[in-house]
Design a protein that fits this description.
Pfam families: DUF1573. InterPro entries: DUF1573 (IPR011467), Ig-like_fold (IPR013783). This is DUF1573 domain-containing protein. The relative contact order is 0.10. By secondary structure, the protein is mainly β. Strands 9-10-12-16-14 form a five-stranded antiparallel beta sheet. The protein folds into three domains: 99 residues, Sandwich (Immunoglobulin-like), CATH 2.60.40; 113 residues, Sandwich (Immunoglobulin-like), CATH 2.60.40.10; 107 residues, Immunoglobulins (Immunoglobulin-like), CATH 2.60.40. The N terminus is likely disordered. The protein contains three helices and 27 strands.
Amino acid sequence: MKLHISITLLVLLNGLFILTLEGQTLERKSLVWEQRKIDIGPVLEENGPIETVFYGLNPHADSVFITEIITDCGCTAVDFSRDTLSTDKIAAIHVKFDPDQRGGDFSKAIIIKTNLDNEGDTLFLEGINMPLPDKPEQNYPYRKGPVGFRLPVIHMGNVLTNEPKTKFIELFNFGKDSLALQVEHLELPEHIYLVLLPEAVAPGQRALLQLAYDGEKKGDLGFFEEEISLTLQDDTHPIAIKLTAVVFEYFQPVPKSMENMVPRIGLSEIDIDMREIKAGNVVSRSIFFDNLGGEDLIIRKVSSNCTCLRVKVSDDSLSPGQRGQITFEFDTKGRRGIDHKHITVFSNDPINPVRTITIKSNIK
């Protein structure tokens, strides 16, 4: 009987000990980093390795020293001091990225382990790797005077209004003289900023056009095709460059609990089938839109993807619970066969700020 009681107590104490250990969590004492992610931008292979530095502060009363640093690629090398860091001292992690033949965007992880944090902190080195082309005539086929480009058009993609979007465009100097931009003759719209890196391009060398597109300064929403003109030094003929961009208004994320309090747009139809239409006829149709939210709904813009499709909106502002009407006219002159057109509605609905209405028809 005594043996049975002793075994029972031993089991209970052992279970309590295990539960106590499971309930304890070891506090991680990590360094506080000035930046956890560094973007080094475009990396041209011919310029060699790029170096940068991560700085980490020891905010703890205990001394810290780095025990190990792990990188996920042989192209990323690190150098650091193993000296002990007392409180408020700073560690410097020197990182060198050596470009290889794999082009495109990259993100390299760097794991920092210390005597107080064996799990390690993860830092990231990001950029755009641009290998050196071995056949410039093939790699830069679109020529404008002495300058060669990879593509005939600069595609900026989606641009939000909260910050400018930057893109780097490669160019190659096929001429016999160095090239540079005539900055004093650079007439650009307010929403576009442009600089040549480096400022001068030697014959047989490549460079980058750094182009920044500011959606807020554009002052409009939707898809745009634009053309900018560059004048090179010692060249009287400007270079015309086409670019495209799609500008969207930026909204802060909306918490689930507030979804019914913000403006919300509702459409009575988003897929409209006009069925068969006789060629040459002008047909019209109306749909309704409602403010399903708790604040005023504002229609920023309504556009179509064809001049043959004219759109009118009854109201550009609706109070909560109100209804408006969108009317369109479709001119089928010169068109035949299965046809698809789109109407795009931009509003201040932060959850669905862009709505697309598809119009299908068969023109005979």
